[in-house]
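For this section, I looked closely at a protein sequence along with its fold in C-alpha cell form, which I now present.
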Amino acid sequence: MTTELLSYSIIPLLAALAIPFFGRRSFKLTEILSNVTLLAGLGNLMFIIFNPSNKLHNYETFSFDGFTILMLFTIYLVALSIVFFSTFFKVGDFNKNAFYPLIMISVSAMSSMVLSVDFFSLYIFMEALAVTSFALIACEEKKSGIEAAIKYLLLTFPASALILIGLAIMLFANGSLYFDISMQNASPAVFSALAFIVLGFAIKAGLFPFHFWTPDAYQGAPATVSAYLAGIVTKVSGMYAIIKICTLLKVMGPASFKISSPLMLIGVATLIFGSIAALAQKDFKRMLAFSSISQMGYIVAGAATLNPIGILGAILHLFNHATFKTSLFLNSAAIEKSAGTTNMKKLSGLEKNMPVTSWTSVIAIFSTAGLPPLSGFWSKLLIILALWVAAPKPYAILALIFSIVTLAYFMLLQKNVFFGKPKEELKEVKEASVYMLIPVIVMCLIIVVSGIFFPFVFEFFEKTL
C-alpha cells in the first residue's frame, strides 16, 4: 500500500472499534464520531486534490495516480452522504448500533482495496467488504433483508472461488501477484489467470448474465444500505478491479484482446439488458437496481476498449454513477419513509409535496441519461467515442441508443411518481427534512459543477493517470 495514504484505511477501522464503546454512553456520540471521521477524511482528500501548489507543480508532487485519489474521494463522499442521511432517517427496526461500525469497516476495506499493490491484498480486502456488505443488508433484521443478504452471499460465492483459482494459476505461472507492468511478455497461463479473475469480479459487479443477486439485494436491503451498495460498494468490489486489470491489459500486446473482447461484449450486453429490464419494473428501487446494472455495462465496455479515452471515460463514469445513483437511491429512501412504499403504481403527484426531491431526481436522471452539460454526458461521450474508434461500430451505436432508452424509462418513473395526479391517500406526504436533503443537494451540485467545468477535470486526469 501507499504509506502516505494508509490513514484512509486505518482511521475508519479505529473509529469502528471506538463506536460501540461510545454507544454505551450516548448513541448520539456514535453518530457524531461516524460523521466527523468521514468528513475529516473527505476534507483532507479535497485539500490534496484542490491544493493550488499541486497544479502549480503540474501534479508532479503526487505519489499516487489520479484513479487512486478519485476512488478514495468517491468512497468517502458516498459513505459520508449515507451516514449523514441515516443520522436523520428514523424508520423501522433499523439496527444503527451495527450500521455505523459496519460502514466504517467497509470504508476501511474499500480504501485498502484501492491502495493495494497486488492481487492477493485486493482479494483479501474484497472478502472483508463482502462480509460487511452481507451484515449491512441484514441489519434491519427483517425477513426481506435476511433473504437478500443470503442471496448476496450465496450468489457471489462463486466469484471468490474463480478469483482464487486465478490467483493460484498466476502465482505458479508468474511467480508474483503484484500489479506488474512487466507482464508485457506474459505467458498464456497468466492470461488464463486474468480471465478467471476478471470473471470473478464481473460477478461481484453484477454484470449480465451474473446479475441475479443485484435487484434482490438492492430491493431487500434497508433503504440507506441500498444507496450505499449502489453508490460505491459494487463499484469498488467489482468494477475497480476490472478497470485496474484493463490498465494492465493495455500494455500486454495484441494477446490481451482475448480477454478484453469478450469483456467488451459482456459490457454491451449488460447495458442493453439492464435498460430493457428497467423498463418493465414497477418498483422504484428495483428500477434503480436494473439501471445500475445498465450503467455498469457502460463502464465495462469503455474500459475493455483498452483505449486511453475509453479507460478515462470508464473511470469518470464510475465516479459519476456514484453521484447520481446515490442521489436517486436516497430520494427513494425519502419517498419510502414519507409515502410508505416504493411501488410506482401506488405513487403519483409527489412533486407538489416533495419539490426538492423531485427536481434533484430530475438532475440525477438527466446525468444518468447523458444529457449535457451534466457530468454523465462527458463520461458517456468518452465511452461512446472509444467504442467507435476501438471496437465494432455497432457497439457505439447501441451504447448511444440505450442511453436514450435510459432517459425514456427514467422519465416514465418521474411522470408516475412525481408529475401525475396526486392521490388522495398521499396528500399528507411531506418533503424530506432539510438535513436529509443536504447530501442529495451536494451530490447534484457535484453533478452540475463537474459537468460545467469538465475541461479542468480532464486536465487533472490527463496529468495524473
Observations:
- The chain has one domain: 3-464.
- The two ends are 18 Å apart (CA to CA).
